[in-house]
Amino acid sequence: MDYPNDQAPGAPVRSGIPEHGRIPKYYAVKARIAALLEELGEGGVIPTERDLAERYDVARETVRQAVRELVLEGRLRRRGRGTVVAGPKLTQPLSLASYTEGVRRQGRTPGRNLVTLDRFPCPDALAAETGLNRGEPVWHLERVLLADEERVGLESTYVAVGRVPRLDTDFDPDSSFYAYLTTRGIAFGDADERIETVLATPREALLIGTPPALPMLLIHRISRDVDGGPLERVRSLYRGDRFSFTTRLSGTTRLSG
Questions:
Q1: 160: which strand partners?
Q2: Would you tell me how many other CB atoms lie within 10 Å of the CB of residue 226?
Q3: Domains of the chain with bracketed CATH
Q4: What are 46-105's pLDDT values in tens digits?
Q5: How far out from the chain centre does Cα 94 lie?
Q6: Which pTM was predicted?
Q7: What are phi and psi for residue 212, nearest 5 degrees?
Q8: Alpha-carbon dihedral of residues 27, 30, 32, 38, nearest 10 degrees?
Q9: Which of 98, 172, 177, 222 is the most exposed place for a label (fewest CB within 10 A)?
């Protein structure tokens, strides 16, 4: 099937041109820089703001706004004092699959850096949300998520100590928590998941290594075992410029609109 130039699959509607047809100067520069990225390829260093401003005969602030948007979209990334062409985003399925499996399927090497592992009595809010008993001991496992040594997210997991009493001694923090549960005969049944866009807190931005203004994808998950009992509560924060998520809708799903 033939598509108009601005209606090809994956292209923005009308290529971002407003109905009145007047294109903001920064957007025109952004489009020209985007074409340049195709020539440079992944890892290529783009010219400086001054060089781009001279090349396109615009003010440096116009170039700065265009580059800023390309960084937020994940098409460029900062490296040291320069800006380079970013690789494709990591795509994670919305399913009961581990982060490790999703990253490995894309030929990348997953990893995690432990931030904290502690235990405390289950607070009222967590008990109400998960079905755990108020006051029962729970673990809190917090780790920075890596892909090829690049920091891409932050994950916090809450699980009852009674489920995994030796988590602090038997578990390798750099490994898959789901695989750890499986080896102990704990099977996942189902889960409720919610996604929203947020800005990282100053602490989260520092741990992930991103500017506080960078949009993040936040996933809340409450998992249950095959008997419907509470299993884990997970809060996963992913860089919006490095991740996208996919799911499959079955024919029984009713669509509207």
A1: 138
A2: 11
A3: 5-85 (1.10.10.10), 90-246 (3.40.1410.10)
A4: 999 999 999 989 999 999 888 888 887 778 877 777 888 877 766 666 665 667 776 777
A5: 12
A6: 0.68
A7: -60, -25
A8: -140
A9: 172
